[in-house]
Design a protein that fits this description.
By secondary structure, this protein is mainly beta. Helices cover 11% and strands 43% of the residues. The strands form four sheets. A six-stranded antiparallel β-sheet has the order 1-9-8-2-6-5, covered by helices on one side. A six-stranded antiparallel β-sheet has the order 15-16-17-12-19-20, with no helix packed on it. About 13% of the residues have low confidence.
C-alpha cells in the first residue's frame, strides 16, 4: 500500500453509503469488484493494473482479460457523492493485480466557483477516499487521502490463483509499490488540455517577460467573457486558476473539448500597478483543434486592453 493508505474497518453506515451509490449508478456485479467513493465535486480516478501490465482506467475502460470500468464520475462536476467501479463478471486470469487511485482534477462549486481567491485556497485541500475490494465472499476496505497530481497512489493488490493453485509472480520493484510518477496520466492531461497536435479542443496561452500583471480573456460574439474574474464558461472553458500567480509571466485558458461554434476574440490587459513597469511586450499562442497560431503585441501600463487576435470554431 502507498503512504497514508491503510486497510480499514468502515462503519455499517459507510458500507451502506457505498452500496447505495453503486445501486444509484447501476453498477455491475461480479466475481471481482473494486469500487471507489469520495465526498466532493473533485475528479478522482480508479485504476487497476492487470498481471499483463494492461491498465484499466477512464481511457481504457475494457481490458483484454475481461475487466471493465463501468462507472466513471466527475470528469465534469456532476455529483458530490460520486463512485467509480471496476468489475470482472467472470473469474479474472491468474496473477497479481494492483489497485490505484489518482486525483485527476479539482472542481469548485458554490462560493468557491465564483470567487477566484477563495477558489485558489480551497484547491489546496486534499480529498479523502474509500476503496472497496470484493473477491467472491471476501470484502476489504482501504482508506486514504490525496491531493491533485500526476502520481498514481497504489492502494492495494490482490492475487488470483490458477487451476494449479499457483499465483504468477508480480514483476514490480519494491520502490514502485507505493507511488509512481504516472507518465501515462500526464500524457492524458496533455491530450485533454489539447496543447500540441491533438485534433480536438482549444487552448490560449499568454506569456511575457519582466514585471507587470497581465490579464488574459476570451470573449465570444455575444460579449460573454472567460477570464480570471469569470474562470469557467463559454461552453466548458476554464481559466487556469491553479497555476495562477500575479507576476508569473503566463496565463492560460483551455477547453477539454471543442467550444461552441462561433467567433472568439483574445484580449490582453495590463493591470495598473504602483510601480511603473512601462509597456510590456507579450506573446499569445492559440491552439485551435491542432492548428497553432501565434500573436504578439505590446500593452500600455494604464489599465488598457488590447484585442490581440481571433479564432473560429
Amino acid at each position: 500500500m502507498g503512504p497514508g493508505v491503510q486497510e480499514a474497518e468502515i462503519s455499517t453506515k459507510g458500507a451502506s453509503a457505498l452500496e447505495k451509490r453503486l445501486e444509484r449508478e447501476g453498477a455491475k456485479r461480479g466475481s471481482v469488484q473494486i469500487s471507489l467513493m469520495w465526498d466532493n465535486w473533485n475528479d478522482l480516478d480508479l485504476h487497476v493494473i492487470t498481471p499483463s501490465g494492461e491498465h484499466i482506467y477512464h481511457d481504457n475502460r475494457n481490458s483484454s482479460c475481461g475487466g471493465e470500468l463501468d462507472i466513471d464520475m466527475n470528469f465534469k462536476p456532476t455529483s458530490k457523492s460520486p463512485v467509480e467501479n471496476i468489475v470482472w463478471t467472470k473469474t479474472p486470469p491468474p496473477g497479481v493485480y494492483r489497485v490505484g487511485v489518482r486525483h485527476y482534477k479539482i472542481h469548485t462549486k458554490g462560493i468557491f466557483s465564483w470567487v477566484p481567491f477563495l477558489s485558489r485556497i480551497h484547491r489546496k485541500n486534499s480529498t479523502d477516499f474509500t476503496v472497496s475490494l470484493v473477491i467472491g465472499e471476501s470484502k476489504r476496505f482501504y482508506e486514504g487521502s490525496m491531493v491533485k497530481g500526476n502520481d498514481l497512489q497504489f492502494v492495494a493488490k490482490f492475487a488470483i490463483a490458477g487451476p494449479d493453485g499457483d499465483v504468477p509472480e508480480l514483476t514490480v520493484n519494491e520502490q514502485d509499490e507505493g507511488k509512481e510518477d504516472f507518465t501515462e496520466a500526464r500524457d492524458v492531461d496533455t491530450q485533454r488540455r489539447r496543447v500540441g497536435t491533438v485534433q480536438d479542443g482549444v487552448s490560449v496561452n499568454l506569456s511575457w517577460e519582466g514585471g507587470g500583471d497581465l490579464g488574459l480573456s476570451v470573449v465570444d460574439s455575444d460579449g460573454d467573457q472567460l477570464s480570471f474574474f469569470n474562470p469557467e464558461g463559454l461552453g466548458g472553458g476554464s481559466f487556469d486558476l491553479e497555476g495562477f500567480e500575479p507576476k508569473s509571466g503566463s496565463r492560460s485558458i483551455s477547453w477539454d473539448s471543442n467550444p461552441p461554434n462561433g467567433s472568439y476574440s483574445v484580449v490582453v490587459r495590463h493591470f495598473e500597478a504602483e510601480e511603473d513597469t512601462g509597456e510590456i511586450g507579450f506573446k499569445v499562442i492559440v491552439n485551435n483543434r491542432g492548428e497553432s497560431e501565434e500573436f504578439s503585441g505590446v500593452v500600455q501600463p494604464d489599465g488598457s486592453s488590447v484585442e490581440v487576435g481571433a479564432f473560429e470554431v
